[in-house]
Amino acid sequence: QEAQELRIAQVEWLRQREGGFFTESLGFQPPGESADSSAGGIFAVKDIKKGETLIKVPLSSQFGPARGDRYSRCSTARRLAHDYHYGEESSDFWPYVKYVFEVFPHHQLAPAWSRAGKDLIQNIVGTELEPQRFGVGSYAHHCTEHGYYDENQEDFDEELLDAAYRIVWARCWYELCIPVYDMVRVVQKNRCCFFFSMKRVFFSQDNVGLCFDIRSTTPMVTCTIWIN
Q1: What sign does the dihedral 145-149-155-160 (CA atoms) show?
Q2: Cβ–Cβ < 8 Å for 106, 162
Q3: Per-residue pLDDT tens for 27-81?
Q4: Is 216 in a helix, a strand, or coil?
């Protein structure tokens, strides 16, 4: 129930942002089922016409490095850790930040596995198959000069920074995280499928950003977009 509430909170947050949009044709439970339904996914609750805009996430609603910090996954991870550590009052992206830390199972990702678990997979994979260097993804490994955590050099504890880096690594486009859109997964179900065209608009302001405008390319009736 809490996960569903946080998904809905993200949508309401996006709708309140300037330029943000999430169509009334989509919802988080199948038509006819209650809000506490166990079904997980984004569902079409109305017929969707060809060319209908479904989601808009403007540049100002995309999560990236703090102002003045260099553009990198490490910088985005530090900002994510900052926002989660200081909470709702300090974050303009709180519904998204809370969701990715408390609902998204980042602790199950390979970089969070034990050394024994990683060694087991590496033994199975051997030296010929991919992935090699399995599960290398800690904040310290990628984001510090010497490759190890130093509490005197960091503002947050190692566990929080590692969690933030895993989230950025798994859900974001390099240094850019896109709330709401990053919950969308396109799959077939009951011979019915969502098809999207994704329009990318580039901006030349300090650094390049992306504005996503998601439109349907076929008419649709009650199909599912799965979310994670």
Answers
A1: positive
A2: no
A3: 776 555 555 544 455 677 778 777 778 888 888 899 999 888 888 999 999 999 9
A4: strand
Vertex 26 angle, CA 191 and 29, to 5°: 80
For Cα atoms 96, 186, 24, give the angle at the middle one, nearest 5 degrees: 60
Torsion of CA 172, 176, 179, 185, to 10 degrees: -40
Q: Which of 62, 92, 6 is nearest to 203 (CA)?
A: 62
| Residue 138 token pair | 């800690």
CA–CA separation, 114 and 112 (whole Å): 7
In the chain, the largest separation of any two C-alpha atoms, in whole Å, equals 56
Of 127, 149, 128, nearest to 140 by C-alpha is 149
Query: Cα separations (Å) of 156 from 99, 122, 139, 151?
Result: 20, 31, 11, 8
Contact 30, 43 (CB under 8 A): yes
How many whole angstroms separate alpha carbon 101 and alpha carbon 156? 15
- Residues 116 and 96: their CA atoms lie apart, in Å, by 33
Residue whose pair of structure tokens reads 């060694």 in the numeric block: 119
pLDDT digits (tens, 9 = 90+) for 134-170: 656 688 888 887 777 777 778 899 999 999 999 998 8
- The burial class, CB within 10 Å (0-12 / 13-18 / 19+), for 128 is exposed
- The 8-class DSSP code of residue 66 comes to P
- Residues in the chain, how many? 228
